[in-house]
Fold these 4 entries.
Entry 1:
Amino acid sequence: MNFGKKIWLIGNTSEKSKKTMEKLSKILKAEHFLFDDINPDIVISVGGDGTLLRAMHMYEYQLNRVRFLGVHTGHLGFYTDFTDEDLFEVVDALYEENPAKAIHYPLIKVQVNFADGYQIVRHVLNESTIRRASKTMVGDVRISDYLFERFRGDGLSISTPTGSTAYNKSIGGAVVHPRVKAMQVAEIASLNNVVYRTLGSPMIVAEKDIITVCPAPEDDYSLTFDQLTFEYKNIKSIEYSLDGTTISFANCAHTSFWERVSKAFIGEVE
Ligand code: NAP
Ligand code: MN
C-alpha cells in the first residue's frame, strides 16, 4: 500500500532527465501511486537544482502542504538527494516518507511596493537580486527602522541560507547553514571611493529584521526571484523578510548540508 500519496513529477529537458522521468513514472504507476498536478503531496523534481527551483515556483502558493524530493541526473545538488541510478530507493523512500519528519528550509518573502500603491509578493528559495539595467544603481538600504547606507553600484543580492552557495557565493558571500535563520545581503560591484561609501562586505541579518531597499526613482530596474527575471518601473521600495515560510523536503536519505558543500566545492579530501 502507498497510503494514497499523491505525486507529481517535474523534469528538465535533458535526455537523461526525460528517460529518468519515464522510468520513474512507470515504477510509480505500477506501485499505484496517484498522479496529481493540482494538489500533490510530494513533488519530485528530476534534473538539477535549477529544476527544483522551477518546481518550487510552480507550487509557490502551496508550500505549506507540498513536500519536495529531488532526483539529480547530473551532479549532486543542493536540493537533490537521489541519483537516477537509485530509482527503487526513491520508491522505498516514498513509502517511508513521513510529513512530520520533513526537513524545512527558510524562504525569503520579497514585497515590491510601487509608487501607485500596487504590491507584488513573492517567495524565493535561493535569492532575490535588484539591479539597474543601464547606469549605476543608487538605493537606500534600511535594516528594520535604521537607515544603514546609501548603496551605489550594480546591485544587491539578498539570499537565503540554502541560496548562500549559489549566486551569493559567486559574489563573495559566506556559506550559511540552513539552521541559521538569517538573510544575507551581498553587494554586486559596489562603488567605494572618497565620495561614496557602502559597507563593502556581505552582511548576515537576523531573523526578525526586515531589509528595505528604496531605489532612486529611475525606470529601469531588473529584479530576480531565483531563476526568474522581471523588469519594473516606478518601484518605491522592496522589503525582504523571513516570514516563516519554508520549503519542506521529504526527510528520506537527506544529505547533510556540510557534506553537500564539501562535495560540491572541494571534492575528495585525501
Ligand atoms: P543556472 O544558470 O543553470 O544555474 C547556475 C548554477 O547554480 C547551476 O550549476 C545550478 O545547479 C547552481 N545552483 C542553483 N542553486 C544552487 C544552490 N542553492 N547552491 C549551489 N548551486 C546552485 O540557473 P538555474 O539552474 O535556473 O538556477 C538559478 C540560480 O542560479 C539562481 O538562483 C542563482 O543563484 C544561480 N546563478 C548563479 C550565477 C553565478 O554564480 N554567477 C549566475 C546566474 C544564476 P544545477 O546545475 O544543478 O541546476
Ligand atoms: Mn541549472
Entry 2:
Amino acid sequence: MQEKTINEYILSVSDIVVKYKRPLKAFVRSFGCQLNFSDGEKIKGMLIKMGYTMAEDEQSADVVIFNTCAVRENAEDRVFGNLGFLKHYKEENPNMIIGLCGCMAALEHVTDKLKKSYKFVDIVFSPSAIDKLPKLLYEKLSGSKYAFDTNEYNLSAEGLYQERDSSFKASVPIMFGCNNFCTYCIVPYVRGRERSRKPENIIQEVEKLVADGYKEIMLLGQNVNSYGKDLEEKTDFPDLLRKINAVEGDFVIRFMSSHPKDAGRKLIDTIIECEKVGKHLHLPVQSGSDEILEKMNRRYTVEKYMETIDYARSFIPDFSFTTDIIVGFPNESAEDFEKTLELIKRVKYDNIYSFIYSKRSGTKAAEIDDKISDEEKGERMTKLLAVQREISTESYRRFIGRTMRVLVDGKSKKNGLLNGKSDEFVIVEFEGDESLIGSFVNVKITEAKNWAVTGVIE
Ligand code: 5AD
Ligand code: SF4
C-alpha cells in the first residue's frame, strides 16, 4: 500500500479533530537557536492546518510539543525538568498528547530515557522529520501507544505553512545541517549533513514576506557560508545575498551563522555593496588560542580570523562584529584563556555570546580527559564577561552623535522606553509611541551603555 502524503495525513487528523464537541488546542514550546524556533513555527503551522487552535500555555492544551535543543547539557536538563510538569497536567487531563522533537529527539540516550522513564511522552520525531508530525499524530489519535520517528531523512522540507511569531521579523532557513564536525559540537550528529534550499525557493519566500510587510529577513543556517556547495547549480552565499538584496522593498537583511574558515573577502565585499544587508557580522571565533582552535577542529588561526575583521574595517572602520566564545574547552590553559581575552580586546566586539564548555557524549572532545575544574571555568567566565562589558560600553560610544536606522521591536515594561535593533544589530532604546513597533525610525544616539545605546527619534 502506498504511504499517505503529508496533506492526506493533515486531512485525516482534521477529520478526527472536528468530531470533538469543543475546539482542540495545541501548544508548542521551542528551545535553543533561531533555526529551532523556525521549525517551531512550521510545527504550529501544521497543527493549525490540522484544526487545532493555539493555546496560551501547556496546561490548557490538548497537544503539547516540546521542540528541544541539545547543544549544551543544561538545555537538556531544562527540557526534562519541564517534562516533569507536563506529567502533572496529564494526570489532570489524561487525553493530553505530549510530543518531543528538535535536536534532543535525535539522541539515542534521550529516546531510551523517554521510553524507560517518561512513558507519558507519546510522540517523538527528529529535526529532519518535522513533516512527519501529521502522520504520528494520526497514529496516536488512532490508538497507537507510541508514535516515534527518529530517522534522519536529509530533507529540506519545502512548502510547509509557517505560523510566524512576528508580523515584521521573519526568519528564512537557507540550509539545514552541518558538515564541519567541530569537536565539541553535537549539531552534525543530530541535524545531519548540509542540505541547501534552492535559490528560487528562497527568493520566492522572501518576495512574499516583503509583500506581506516584513521588515527584517533573517537568513539562517548552521554555517551559511557553505550555502550552495551541495546544489547542482553553481552558486554560493554571496550570490544569494545579492539576489535577495535585489528584491524590491524596504527591509533589512541579516544572517546567522558564519564560519570564519569560509567567511572571506567575497562575503565582506557583498555585505558592503548590498545596501539592504546590515553592516554587521556574527563571526563565532570560539577561542583566541590557535592550539585550542586546532583541538576544536575549527580550521583557522587567530591571524586568519583577524584578516577578515581587518579587511572589513579597511572599508568601514566601525564595522560591527559579534561572536560566540566557549570558555573551558577541555584542558584550556590559563594562557589559552588569556589569549581569548586579548582577542576580544583586539577585535572590540559589540557583543559576545559566551558559553561554558558542555560535554556532549558522542563528540570527539568528550573523549578528552579534562583536568580543569568547574570552579576555574566559572571564574574565567566571570572575568570574560567583565572584560566584555567594558569593551561594549567603549565600543558603543562610537555611535554617540550619529543617527541610526532602527527597526522598532517592542516596549520595555521596566522603563517604558521603546527598543529595537539598528542595522548594525545594536540594541537601541528611545522614547516613542507604541504604534511605531514594526516600523523603521531614525534615532540620534546620545548615550552608550554596556548592552545598548539610547537616543531620541529624529
Ligand atoms: N559547549 C558549549 N558551547 C557550545 N556551543 C556549541 N557546542 C557547545 C558545547 N558543547 C556553542 C558554540 C556555538 C554556539 C551556537 O553554541 O559557541 O557557536
Ligand atoms: Fe557545530 Fe561547528 Fe557545525 Fe557550528 S559549524 S554547528 S559549531 S559543528
Entry 3:
Amino acid sequence: MISAGPAPLLRGGPPDERVRMKISIIGAGYVGLVTGVCLAHIGHEVICVDNDAPKVQKLRKGIIPIYEPGLAPLLTRLMKQQKLVFTTSIKEATRKSTVIFIAVGTPSKKSGEADLTYVENVAREIAVNMDSYKLIVEKSTVPTATGQRVERTIRLNLPKKFRARRGGELEFDVASNPEFLREGSAVEDFMNPDRIVIGVESKKAEQLLREVYKPLKATIVVTNINSAELIKHASNSFLATKISFANAVSRICDLVGADVLKVAEGMGYDKRIGRSFLNAGIGYGGSCFPKDVDAFIRLSEKSGYDFGLLKAVRQVNEEQKTHFVRLIEDKLWIIKNKTIGVLGLAFKPDTDDMRNAPAIDIIQALQHEGARIKAYDPQAMERAAGELPGVVMCKDPYAVARGCDCLLILTEWKEFKELNYRKVRESMRQAVIFDGRNLLADAAMRQLGFEYFGIGRGCLGTEGRRT
Ligand code: NAD
Ligand code: UGA
C-alpha cells in the first residue's frame, strides 16, 4: 500500500508525453478525485469538477476532504505542475476537454434501485455546453442500460444549433468504464489494475479510451456498454458473495468447534477459490457493496429474474451484525449501564469513510439496550460523530479501554494489533474482547488474561448456538 511520500511507480516507466490528453472528471469524491489525480500522474491534463463549492475551494488550496493514503503528495505535485485543476464549472470542463468522465454518486433509492439523478443532471449539463466531439464516459457504478439513457439525455439536450441544422448534428460517444479501486488502497489499485473494462459502441471511443490508459500497460477488456455495466455489478456482487459465504461458514465453525481462519486458509490455496475476500467478520459495509448488491437484485427483478442467491448474501450480511450483538449480550448478560469500548468505526481500515459502516448498526443496537459507548478510530471519528450521537470519542485506544466492561474491535486498523494489551487489560473493568474482525491472536489474548471471542473461531461452545 502507498503511504505518504514516494509516487506510485508506473508499470511501463515514466509517463509518455505523446499520450497527453485533455480530460475532465465530473464529481471529485472518493472515485473522481483519485481518478483525476492518477490520470494526471500518468501524463494527462486533468480538470476535476465538483458542484460542492467549498470542497473545490479546499482542493484548490491542496486540502483533501477525504483520507486516502498516498493521494495528498501526488495532488500537491500535480497541481504545482498545472496538470490538475479544480473548478465548479461543467461548462469550462466540457469546452476544454475531449474525454469527460462522470464520477458522481449513484446512491440507493428506498426500493434498492440506483438513484441516477446526479448522472442525469451531469449528462444534461455536459450536453448543453458541447461545442465539438466529446467522449462521455460513465465511471460511476450504474445499472445496465444506463448508457443508452445517458446517450438519449445528451442527444435531447444538445445546443439548438446542432439539433436544428440538417446533417449538422454534433458527433459524440458514450462509453462505460467501471472503476474497481478500493478505498484505503485506491491510488495503488488505480495505478495497477487487474484489468480495465471498456464498454464502447464505436472504434473512436475504444481508441480514445485505450489512449487514456496506455501508460498503465494493463489488460484491457473491450465489450459493449451493457456488458461493461454488468461486469461492475457482477464483480461487486461476487465479492460480497465470497464474504457472506465465509461468514456463513464462520457460524458453522462456532457450532462445531472449527476455526474459520484455518478453513479459509485451507480453501484459499486452491487457485480456483483464492484466499482473498474470505475474511469472516461483522459483515461488509461501505458505500458500494450494500448499495450495489441491492441495485443488482432490483435490476434483476425488473428484468424478470429473481436473484435469490444474492438476496441470501444480503441476509447473511445483515445477520452477522445481529449475531455479534447477541454474542455480546450473551457474555455480558445485562447491557444496560455497562461501558463498552469500541476500537474502529470506519467501514474498513485506511479510510475515514463511515458510509454503511457495520459499526453504526452495532453501536446503535447496544445504545438501544442502554450501553455507554466510548470509541476511537484513527481517521473516522469526525465523520462518525455526526452519525453516532452519545458516543464518547477518545484520544487513543487506551483511553477507550479505561473502565470498560468489554472491548469491541470493529475495524482492523493495523495499530490495534500492536497495542500493549497488558496495559489495556489492567485498565479495563472486565477483561473481555469481542474481535469482530479476527484481528488478534486468540491464544495470546487468553494468555494475557482476556476472555476473547472472535468470529467463527470455534470458541463459543453450546452458548454460541444462540442466533
Ligand atoms: P462521492 O459521494 O464520494 O463523490 C461524488 C461527488 O460528486 C461528490 O463530491 C459530489 O459533490 C459530486 N457531485 C454530485 N453531483 C454533481 C454535479 N451535478 N456536478 C458536479 N459534481 C457533482 O462518491 P464516490 O464514493 O466517489 O462514488 C462515485 C461513484 O463511483 C458511485 O457510483 C460509486 O458506486 C462508484 N464507485 C465508488 C468506489 C469507492 O470506492 N468509493 C469504487 C468504485 C466505484
Ligand atoms: C469494493 C471493491 O473491493 C472494489 O473493487 C470496488 O471498486 C468498490 O467496492 C466499489 O465499487 O466501490 P471497498 O468497498 O472500497 O471496495 O472496500 P473492500 O476492501 O472491498 O471492503 C468492502 C467491505 O467488505 C468492508 O466493510 C470490508 O471490511 C468487508 N470485507 C472485505 C470483509 O468483511 N471480508 C473480506 O474478506 C473483505
Entry 4:
Amino acid sequence: MSNQEPWGKTVLVDFSDDIAWVTLNRPDKRNCMSPELNREMLATLDALETDDRCKVVVLTGAGESWSAGMDLKEYFREVDGAPPIVQYRTRRASGDWQWRKLRFYVKPTIAMVNGWVFGGAFTPLVACDFAIAAEDAQFGLSEINWGILPGGNVTKVVMDTMGHRDGLYYIMTGETFDAVKAAQMKLINEAVPRAQLKQRVTELAKTLMGKDAVTLHAAKEVAKRVMSMDWDTANDYIYAKVDEAIFQSGGHFRKGAMKAFLDDKKLKPGLQTYDPENK
Ligand code: COA
C-alpha cells in the first residue's frame, strides 16, 4: 500500500474481485464514527472514485459491529463547547461522506452489515445503493434513549425508507430490531445467514459489474432524484439523463445489445445482460 493512500487507521481497504472492501476500523469502539474517521472516510471515497482496482464499493465494519453510530465522546461531548465554526465543520465532515458523497457515488455501493447498526449509522446505511445484512445483525434508533432525537439526517433517511408507522415506532421507542425485520420494513434489501453474507454481497457486486458503468451511475442518480420531482419535471429530466448517458458512454453497450437482439438473434435482454466481451 503506498503512502499516498488516505486510509489505514480508522478505515481499511482491501481489493479483490474488482471490489473495494472498505472497513470501518474502530472495533474496540464498535466502529462509532469520530471526526477522524469521518475525515478518513471522505478521503477514502474520494480516492476510490478514480481507483481502477475498485468497480464496486462494499462498506462493512471490523469486529462485531457495523457501526454504533456517532462517537458520543469525540463527536458530541468534546465538540459541544467548541466555537460554532468547529461544530459546523465537524458536522459538515460527517455529512460530506455519509450522504453527500455516498448517495450519488459514481460507483455502486453495498452496505455489508455484519453487526450493530445504531443511530447515525443509519445515514450511510441508507445512502449506500444496497444493504445486505447477516440475519442476526441488530439495528436501533437509540437516540431517544439518550434524550436526543435522531439528528444529522437520520430521521430523514428513516422516514424516506421505512414505512411511516415503522419509522415513528422505532424513532419513538428506541427498541432494537434484527435484520430479518429490517428487510421486512425495506430498510435493507436482504437478510442472509451470516455464513453466506460475503458470498451474497460478492454475487451482487459481480452482477452490477456486468452492466455499463456510465448507465448504471445515471440510473441510480435518476432514481434517487426523481423521488422529489413532479411527473413533468421528472420526464424531462429522465430524457436528458438518458441522452447524457448515451453521449458519455458512447452508446456502444446499447448498440451492441440491440444488434445481438434485433439482427443476430443471439440475446434475450429480458433475461440476460449483454456482454460486450462475448459478442
Ligand atoms: N460512542 C462512543 N463510544 C462508543 C459508542 C458510541 N456510539 N458505542 C460504543 N462505544 C464504546 C464504549 O464506550 C466502549 O468504550 P470503552 O471500552 O472505552 O469503555 C466500547 O465502545 C465498547 O462498548 P461496550 O458498550 O462495552 O460494547 P458492547 O458490545 O457491550 O455493546 C453496544 C455494544 C453497541 C450495544 C453499546 O456499546 C452501545 O449501546 N453503544 C451506543 C450505541 C448508540 O446508542 N449509538 C447511537 C449514538 S446517537
